[in-house]
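Progress report, Aim 2. The chain analyzed during this reporting quarter is listed below.
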Amino acid sequence: MFAYIKGSLEMKSSGYIVIDINGLGYKVFMSQNNIDTIGELHDIIKVFTYVKVREDDISIFGFKTQEELKMFELLISVSGVGAKSALVMLSCIEPSDFAIAVISNDVKVLTKVPGIGNKSAQRIILELKDKLKAEQSELDEEKLENTKLKSSKTNENVQEAISGLMVLGY
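Predicted structure tokens for the chain:
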């Protein structure tokens, strides 16, 4: 619905900010880390958004980067993980660290998030591992084409590291 919202930061609160666009204030839910680092009041900011529409609620969730937005969309696709839980996860774990934890089956990293136990962490890993690998393979193909053009002498370990970083948004 909205790809991003750009406007004046009018209010910071616990769990959300208000962005003013031509006299209309949008309440945007964000992770606390993003709220703390988004900027000062009355600064012009740009927030990538996800709009959740339900029969009794319309909510806007904001993210500083596209990578955070993609990770949020992946998280809410997991059964039992709602939008608020996904925001809490993104507040506690960076998207790149989260992707590494899922791909490497690291349950300990995920259980550090408040409200996530072993069973929930295992379910998240089970449901997201294939999706993250699919994204990685798509990025790998694009990166391999670019890498072949730039240099034909890179070894396999360097290519794996580059592919892993591309998945993480670097």
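Residues 149-154 have pLDDT under 50 and may be disordered. Helices lie at 32-37, 66-76, 83-92, 95-103, 107-111, 118-150, 156-167. These observations will guide the mutagenesis work planned for the next reporting period.
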